[in-house]
Design brief:
The chain contains 11 helices and 17 strands. The radius of gyration is 21 Å and the shape is globular. α2 crosses α8 and α9 packs parallel to α11. The protein is about 30% helix and about 20% strand. The strands form 4 sheets. Strands 3-4-5-6-7-8-9-10 form an 8-stranded parallel beta barrel. Strands 11-12-17-14-15 form a 5-stranded antiparallel sheet, covered by helices on one side. Strands 1-2 form a two-stranded antiparallel ribbon. By secondary structure, the protein is α/β, with parallel strands linked by helices. The protein has 2 domains: about 325 residues, Aldolase class I (TIM Barrel, Alpha-Beta Barrel), CATH 3.20.20; about 80 residues, Sandwich (Immunoglobulin-like).
């Protein structure tokens, strides 16, 4: 999204109250640990590299005091919401929102502390200190500023150097320029330096379902099949690409991913579509399957007949009923994330269950959890998939499908399930 659009977002809210890259990705997906044994179970599998999960936040005293190290906490963030009462914060919490980015300077920050939610204020705000403010949002899409990536890098370093050094983490969101794979080597090094120039989460906003042009993806460092561009799998590809940028220098940090709650179109002249409820849930879940450590909802819509500067608030007050199905989808997927946060916040295992599936494997308190969707490969289409369980799980006789009130038989260490749409996801539980 162009920077001018983000400036327009802020005005509206306040007014309303790619081959080399695939090698890097493989490196990210595998660690040197060959066998894992812990209190959550034993699987003779390597782990997927991570930054430490909830323990990452312990280096920031304010975040630690606020409970961000709690395994039951997973950041679910609303972009440029605007709150004016405790009732509004409680309403947002009912949708699963626990963190805000970019509140106006006039906001009463007691609303966040009073309701045990968090805010990452913009750098130009001066909110009161306290556990409701565990981090600071520094800048949006700085990677495209100026005449070159070198210029942008220096600007980012200046912003970081000038930001407060008071034990809180920093957050920067980048454009999809960051995950370009066709740029000169100097740009690659500059992009890698950008994401590692500060301590805190990193994200990229790219809205595959609703931005006018989905097919400008040939330059991305993670290959995306053009026929599957407007699918949930593309949101996971963004996470993999950002993780590759972060890991290139040998360090890891949390990657958060943006999902539009209605539209990502930049203006009325470029309307493509609204994200549908199932697509929204699928985009969120594929992001998590690909190791996203937080979800950020883009909370504005500038195109089509269903427009607003604060979608969640306008659905709550009844002024934007056309977006209610999407907000209901947010509520459902967020509730599921919250219930499974202790599982999601453990380190994943490296394992391939079969072809044309995108999966995440975890263990927690004597059970294994398999998060599954179909992949975005050229040969991948909705339909049945057969999963081959790894050693340690192959003796199971039945698989519980969470949130669906059904079980699946296991035959010779395999089970089969159907994925009706490209955005369909299933979460399986296997007692070890």
């Amino acid at each position: 999204m162009a920077r001018r659009i983000k400036i327009a977002i802020l005005a509206v809210v306040i007014a309303a109250a790619s081959l080399a890259a695939s090698i890097i990705i493989t490196t990210i997906k595998t660690t040197s640990v060959a066998t894992v044994s812990d209190n959550n179970g034993t699987l003779n599998l390597p782990r997927i590299a991570w930054e430490g999960g909830p323990a990452y936040w312990a280096q920031f005293p304010v975040a630690k005091a606020a409970g961000w190290t709690n395994p039951s906490f997973f950041p679910i963030v609303m972009w440029f919401d605007s709150v004016s009462s405790n009732a509004e914060v409680r309403a947002d919490k009912s949708y699963g929102i626990n963190t805000y980015i970019g509140e106006p300077a006039s906001t009463n920050y007691n609303f966040f502390a009073d309701n045990n939610v968090f805010v990452l204020s913009s750098l130009d705000n001066t909110p009161p200190s306290g556990t409701a403010q565990p981090g600071l949002f520094l800048v949006d899409e700085p990677d495209g500023d100026g005449p070159s990536s070198a210029f942008a890098l220096q600007r980012i370093k200046s912003i970081v150097a000038a930001s407060p050094k008071d034990g809180i983490f920093k957050d920067i969101n980048f454009s999809d320029t960051l995950i370009s794979g066709s740029d000169p080597a100097a740009n690659k090094a500059n992009f890698e330096a950008m994401v590692n120039s500060y301590a805190g989460p990193v994200s990229v906003d790219k809205y595959y379902y609703t931005q006018p042009s989905c097919f400008d993806i040939s330059y991305l460092m993670v290959p995306i099949d053009p026929a599957h561009c407007r699918t949930a799998s593309s949101y996971g590809a963004t996470v993999r690409a950002v993780r590759a940028r972060v890991a290139a220098t040998g360090h890891l940090k949390p990657v958060w991913n943006f999902v539009e709650d209605l539209s990502g179109a930049p203006d009325p002249e470029h309307f493509y579509s609204y994200i549908q409820p199932g697509q929204l849930e699928g985009a969120v879940m594929d992001s998590i399957i690909n190791e996203a450590r937080g979800i950020v909802y883009f909370n504005q819509s500038f195109a089509g007949t269903c427009r607003g500067g604060n979608i969640i608030r306008q659905v709550q007050d009844g002024s934007l009923p056309c977006a209610r199905p999407q907000l209901n989808a947010i509520k459902q997927v967020d509730q599921r994330i919250k219930s499974l946060a202790p599982v999601i916040n453990t380190q994943s295992y490296q394992y391939s269950f079969g072809s044309n599936v995108d999966t995440m494997l975890k263990t927690y308190r004597g059970s294994a959890y398999i998060f599954a969707m179909i992949s975005g490969a050229a040969s991948s289409e909705p339909g049945k998939r057969t999963f081959t369980l790894p050693p340690g799980l192959a003796e199971a006789t039945r698989i519980q499908v969470l949130f669906e009130n059904r079980t699946i038989p296991v035959v010779n260490g395999k089970f089969t399930d159907n994925f009706a749409d490209e955005y369909t996801y299933h979460i399986y539980k296997v007692v070890m």
